């Protein structure tokens, strides 16, 4: 099974969620104000966000028995239901698995031997350490994740197109 992260892999939600809130501490480190994220209107976030590198069409072309969307839900209000509704309206038929904010992706789905495509290295590290196959997605085609951490371990992609090639080899 291949699991695909939603935020900043399928949809470029970072700007819509954090664009008006760029807070740093005295050392210039990003401060995670979870209340700012938890109170976002996800209907608005999704309307303001762009699809990354034709990801929706690519996912729709894949075997729905071999791919799932695995996304963490940060919002206290409507994030999960809006993500599901949004994807279904665009014709995405594969399973959509919502991960509560207080759990990890590895707590929700079987990891061993399965693939995770994600933009955050800490998710990929946990996946890898639990026997999964980690693929680093970077929409900017550089080697840093959303927290500025350098990827030195995982295969890097900037499009989900490789999944179509992978399926055709089987």
List the helices and strands and how they pair.
Layout: E1 2-4, E2 11-12, H1 14-18, H2 34-38, H3 42-48, E3 50-51, H4 55-61, E4 67-73, H5 79-89, E5 96-100, E6 115-118, H6 121-129, E7 133-137, E8 155-157, H7 161-168
3D structure, described in words:
The chain is of the alpha/beta class. It is 31% helix and 18% strand. It has seven helices and eight strands; from the N terminus they run ββαααβαβαββαββα. The protein has helices spanning 14-18, 34-38, 42-48, 55-61, 79-89, 121-129, 161-168, and strands at 2-4, 11-12, 50-51, 67-73, 96-100, 115-118, 133-137, 155-157. A six-stranded parallel beta sheet has the order 5-4-1-6-7-8, with helices on both faces. Strands 2-3 form a two-stranded antiparallel sheet. α5 links the parallel β4 and β5 (96-100).
Using brief descriptors, characterize the structure shown.
alpha/beta; 170 residues; two-stranded antiparallel ribbon; globular
